[in-house]
Design a protein that fits this description.
The structure is a single chain. The protein is mainly alpha-helical. It contains 14 helices and five strands. α3 crosses α6 and α11 crosses α12. The longest helix has 21 residues.
Amino acid sequence: MFLNLFYLREEPQHAHPFRDYNFSDFWNEAHGEPFEKIKESYISDRIINSFRADERRPERLRGFDPEFFPVLRFAFTTGCWRSFIRQNHALPVTALDYYLSKAFQFLYLAITLRYWPDGNCPTSANFDIGWVLSRSLDRVQSAQVVKLRDQELDWWWSVYSDLTNFELPVVLRRFEARMKRRFKAPLPNHGSFRPSATSTHDSPEADCEAQVHGNFAVSYRTARAYLACTERHLSRLVQHGALERVGEGHQRKILSTSLRRYKGAPAPS
């Protein structure tokens, strides 16, 4: 049902009543100004601009201005959901439909505009993106929606961070893996990654084998558990080229292929 809400249009203007139903409380919190109505085009423009190189430091991306995040955050508040239903009371939708649709909207915009800022996403890629997003979001149950409504929206920022480091197939694969770990609802047809049957929690020690064999890259902590080595030893392996690293800072990971390739090989001198 939530995809029907996402694609909902009004005649004759072909407007998107749901996708354009966004607000910002940025100036309300700072200066007591009224809530500002935000159309999807504003969100799209801000996302496209965030991926452009910074004029002063070309090696970095521009990122977002302070007014952007309140738009995303406010969309997942109870007040915004209730306001939408009051104005569209004839729609047979639930709160879960609304929150999943908003999550789909913001994820879809970030992914497609990262690779196709002109909006001309190829049909095949559009299908793949829509399929992975809808399939992953379908895992979320009503009792779990609070995880989507977390005001940090870390599930969105994780995808945005991946978009600055990886190509589309990797971004989609990593998103689906995270959703599988975070939302445990079973699916009729699961993908290539599945937590080990003996895993009772999400610690790298419990399912490091499954993560290394199911993900493009894994955290340093998972890599240490997989190799049963110290942090210092792992750093030496990376330094000597025995393991391959991707990302920087808090986003750094170890390529799973290099871990599988190395395991059993002698450590560098």
